Amino acid sequence: MATVEQSDGTLGAAPEAGVRRRDFINIAAVSFAGVGGVAILYPLINQMNPSADVLALASIEVDLSSIKPGQAIKTMFRKQPLFVRHLTPQEIQAANAVPMSELRDPQTLAERTKPGKAQWLITMGVCTHLGCVPLGASDGETRGPFGGYFCPCHGSMYDTAARIRKGPAPRNLEVPDYNFKSATIVEVGKVAK
Amino acid sequence: MSFPWAEEYRPKHPLMRWLDERLPLPRLVHGAVGGGYPVPRNLNYFWNFGVLAGLALTIQIVTGIVLAMHYTPSGDMAFNSVEHIMRDVNQGWLLRYAHANGASFFFIVTYVHIFRGMYYGSYKAPRELVWMLGLVILLLMMATAFMGYVLPWGQMSFWGAKVITGLFSAIPLVGESVQKWLLGGYAPDEATLNRFFSLHYLLPFVIAGVVILHIWALHIPGSSNPTGVEVKTAEDTVPFHPYYTAKDGFGAGIFLILLAFVTFFLPNYLGHADNYIPANPLSTPAEIVPEWYFWPFYAILRSFTSDFLLPAKLWGVLAMFGAILLLFFLPWLDPSPVRSGSYRPTFRWFFWILVGDVLVLGYCGGSPPEEPFVMISQLATMYYFAHFLIVLPILSWVEKTEPLPRSISESVLHGEHAEAAPAHLGGISPAAAE
User: Fold this and answer.
1) Rounded to the nearest 10 degrees, how much is the dihedral formed by the CA atoms of A10, A16, A18, A19?
2) Contact status of A139 with chain B (Cβ, < 8 Å)
3) Which end of chain B is more exposed for a tag (fewer CB within 10 A), N or C?
């Protein structure tokens, strides 16, 4: 970029002696300004990341004690619906009976629940096709032919492990990070310590 | 437009030549702030303040745009959204403090810039329009700063909005309607906050537009200089780049250090504590004071205490606006043929009296409206107007000025006595060639 053409030999060393004093000062000053400019970019860009109050809601606690077998609840997690479902022994059996080869996104029920807590199926209520909220978590809603969830937008059908079985959705309903704080309290959004 | 010896833009790289034939933007930059703009070689550090004001405007626009991403202009939410910025948004505290103190620094450098123009007679022909466009920028800055101060919706925001819009109610006959129209109601409320936010976002870009006109008008005759003697030969000038980009860069460094110091260590020093109390239409703060940069004008406003033909309030409003409008006529109120205060021994005295007078007005404007401040502001207001309406016109007739140097280079190359640095400022020497 900018260099000072200095024909005057009295300033600094002769050109053939390598880097002149003035070149050094020039490059040092411009580099320092450049580093400062980049440093300023950090807050200007980082301010667009989720703020502390948004992050404070990044994990929620769900009380499972009132959910009876066969029932499900819908709650909000990170501004999106979260399904918490208490599976009946029949539903667990049905999920375990499906051969892996039949699945589009092969996962066992055990992989989608916590050890010893296979009756608690916790998934996001967001269809992996285009983000609609599937039916089946509230009383009286259809659960589709596979007994799990049914998305009314484009007919994606999920089974009792919330795995995709039929329809356009590519993946199973997402299982968020969660851990059991106690027998009946689940902390969603955080893995166990 | 430039001097005939201005270095022409000659792109070496084929891509730059290709661009130059289609969109000569680099040519424009080269001629405006590059090697193609010849500048008097004797500018002192007071000539940094125009560039610093441009830098301050840029800081305000950049920090303001990101603050607007988190701010909510609604009566219920405005105060809380500002606290949300301070506590929750990543580095929000930094961005808001930089914006609030950036406004103060913008005014500091602008006021120095204006007083520099007054001392060195930069407003005189052929630069009258440069001066007047600068005053337009000052008025726009004041409107923008006032509306910005209302946005946090604290006690000072609310009552400041009430008092300032109340000024318009002093206009005979239509005043009350004008105030209602400005506020969108009978007192500052939802509608006021929304329109102030909209205009506070718009006006900085209007300022940027007028800044372009200001620089354009300046570059027709070229920059003035401490001697006030016009450029005569190529010897009198150096290219803007690298000489003044380097000098302005140094000034910008000092400016940013000071801004950072205040932002990090004294972020609320220039603000008022009452603005951390949410706006309450039912409780007036003990005393309502505007931001420091309005204090001199606030003192003029309050110095009219008794009715004389017109109501005192109207006199105050007229005087306050008159104090700035008067400056539009400065090029004709001071017809002395000598520009620079460095060669006007009597003018110099009055100039520094004016500076002191404005500082006194500022101190009184920030003090409670009681004696002795009322009496002092009345005297200071009188001098302010007398300075422009009486002192300057008479001075231009009777003052015996000192001999001017024949040219800029003569003043630079032939001894300190011929230089224009005001000795009582410690004699800042121009950037002379070694």
Assistant:
1) 40
2) no
3) C
Chain A's closest residue to B257, CA to CA, is A36
B250: nearest CA partner in chain A: A29
Superfamily of domain B32-416: Cytochrome Bc1 Complex; Chain C (1.20.810.10)
CB B119 within 8 A of CB B113: no
Tokens of B434: 């070694």
Pick the residue from chain B with its C-alpha nearest to A4. B242
The three-state secondary structure class of B78 is helix
Chain A within 8 Å of B66 (Cβ-Cβ)?
yes
- Looking at the predicted complex, does its ipTM rise above 0.90? no
Mean pLDDT per 10-residue interval, chain B, length 434 residues: 85 94 94 92 96 97 97 94 96 96 98 97 95 98 96 94 88 87 89 95 98 95 94 93 93 96 96 93 87 95 85 89 96 94 95 97 90 92 97 94 90 62 43 38
* pLDDT tens, residue by residue, B149-203: 999 999 999 999 998 888 888 888 888 888 889 998 888 999 999 999 999 999 9
Comparing C-alpha atoms, which of A85, A174, A95 is closest to residue A128?
A: A174
What is the structure's pLDDT at A183? 87
Quick one: B286 exposed, middle or buried, by C-beta within 10 A (0-12, 13-18, 19+)? exposed
A chain contacts of residue B84, beta-carbon cutoff 8 Å: 51, 53
Cα–Cα distance for residue pair A40/A46, rounded to 1 Å: 10
On whether the CB atoms of residues B422 and B341 are closer than 8 A, the answer is yes
| Three-state secondary structure call for residue B43 | coil
Distance CA A121, CA A64 (A): 11
Tokens of B23: 């969109």
| Contact criterion met (CB < 8 Å) for B88 and A29 | no
Contact between chains at A47 and B66 (C-beta distance less than 8 A): yes
List of residues 6+ apart from B189 with CB closer than 8 A? B75, B183
Alpha helices in B339-391 (DSSP H): 345-365, 373-386
| pLDDT value for A28 | 92
Question: Under an 8 A CB cutoff, do A51 and B241 touch?
Answer: no
pLDDT band at A124 (very low <50, low <70, confident <90, very high): very high
Instruction: For chain B, say whether A43 makes contact (Cβ under 8 Å).
Output: yes
Catalytic hit among B223, B377, B409, B411:
B223
Spell out the domain ranges in chain B: 32-416
Best mutation target, B69, B90, B434, to test chain A (most A CBs within 10 A): B90
| Contact with chain B for residue A66, Cβ under 8 A | no
Tens-place pLDDT, residues B34-68 = 999 999 999 999 999 999 999 999 999 999 999 99
- Pick from B91, B241, B249: CB nearest A47: B91
Please determine, for residue A9, whether its predicted confidence score (pLDDT) is greater than 50: no
CB contact under 8 A, A46 and B90: yes
Do the Cβ atoms of B241 and A47 come within 8 Å? no
On whether the CB atoms of residues B188 and B161 are closer than 8 A, the answer is yes
Question: Is residue B248 among the annotated active site residues?
Answer: yes
